[in-house]
Amino acid sequence: MIGGLLKFSMIDFPGKISAIVFTQGCNLKCGYCHNPELIPTAPANPPALTDEDVLYYLEKRRGALDGVVITGGEPAVQPDLKDFITKIKAMGYMVKLDTNGTNPALLQDLLDNKLVDFVAMDIKAPPDKYSSVCGGPVDIEKIKASIMLLRNSGLPHEFRTTYDKTLLDDEDIAALKQEFPDLKVQECNPVKPAKDTLSLFGS
Length: 203
What we know:
The chain has 203 residues and is α/β, with parallel strands linked by helices. Helices cover 29% and strands 19% of the residues. It has one domain (2-161, 180-185): TIM Barrel (Alpha-Beta Barrel), CATH 3.20.20.70. It is globular.
């Protein structure tokens, strides 16, 4: 289900001019969520756009846009995500997927079928704080699996986190940056790396 469409962006897909498709529904309830209206499976009001509307717009913009960013909500909760991306790829677009990493099976399928060109995965917290930050139980093994899939994929990707000081502290961010040296930290001040070099998420 489509939650929204941003028709033009020059900053959300590295090096690409893109449109951004927001999907409706998320399986997490992070306290700092920037798009809380996209958390419910069904929006408060009937969606203004359908898949067909978005595909029609993208068809018209062929040659003017380089790629499409699919974000949310959480795109991986959409049962038709693979089919939707397949249609976008058939138009010649590159696809960037934003995900929380809770559905490694789908991520593996998309990677195997070369349906994504860039993946941005949100790392919510160190493992012991994941559930508290995400507003409920999280299967950390699925998070680890998605991390390893991306690390072994050879595909351009990035790991990123949001620093909400009501949920995390400087030590948490430092530990994450030790685990993910290129971690993109949103809305935070620079922090010193942790001294502990053990992997938080396993090898």
